[in-house]
Amino acid sequence: MDFFEKVSQAKIVPVVVIEDAADAIPTARALLAGGISFMEITMRTSCALDAIKQVKENVPEMTVGAGTVITPANARDAIAAGATFIVSPGFCGEVVDICIENDIPVVPGCVTPTEITAAINKGLSVVKFFPAGVYGGKKAIKELASVFRSVKFLPTGGVNQDNLNEYINEPYITAVGGSWLCPAKLIAAHDFDEITRRANEAVMAVRKEISL
Length: 212
Ligand code: 3PG
Prior knowledge:
By secondary structure, this protein is α/β, with parallel strands linked by helices. It has one domain: Alpha-Beta Barrel (TIM Barrel). Helix content is about 45%, strand content about 15%. It is built from ten helices and eight strands. The strands form three sheets. It has a four-stranded parallel sheet. Strands 4-5 form a two-stranded parallel ribbon. Strands 6-7 form a two-stranded parallel ribbon. Strand 2, helix 3 and strand 3 form a beta-alpha-beta unit. Helix 2 runs parallel beside helix 10 and helix 4 packs parallel to helix 5. The protein is globular. Bound molecules: 3-phosphoglyceric acid.
């Protein structure tokens, strides 16, 4: 099964901001204990590359990727650190090219028809839709999906436990992402049990929703 098939089955990709690299492994283990085996570590902190490296080397069951990849240098650094997928808030052709050259799945942020067209012309079939709540949520995605039929969307930004079920049953939505599972304050407080509880709650909600 390839990366995108696995994401589409899992339905949830946690967005993780690690401020202290020492928290990366326990956060990964807490998510796994709750049934989630994907994590997008954002390149927003100085320790992000170290965090990715630690998870990649020490938690092999976790599929770790890099988020907030904005520049070509970010992409190269994240891949060198061991990121197995790349997520960007926007579309940068060079970032996409680097990922394709390295055979690394890439999910650029695309909210306009022009950006989605650019992604399709790079051969991509999954795009991030961020910030989903601000750009029209499911209503907007549905309109775009009716035109761009080869594309599936990964909405993030304002997705949480309360509105998860609005999104995940739609055929044009591959999965959702978000920080509600392991917000920075829970990681900083080392409340890994609560991260596991939230992960499990989300997994249960997905199971219930997709079996309806
Ligand atoms: C992202 O990087 O996708 C967003 O920061 C996640 O948004 P959220 O914090 O609203 O979940």
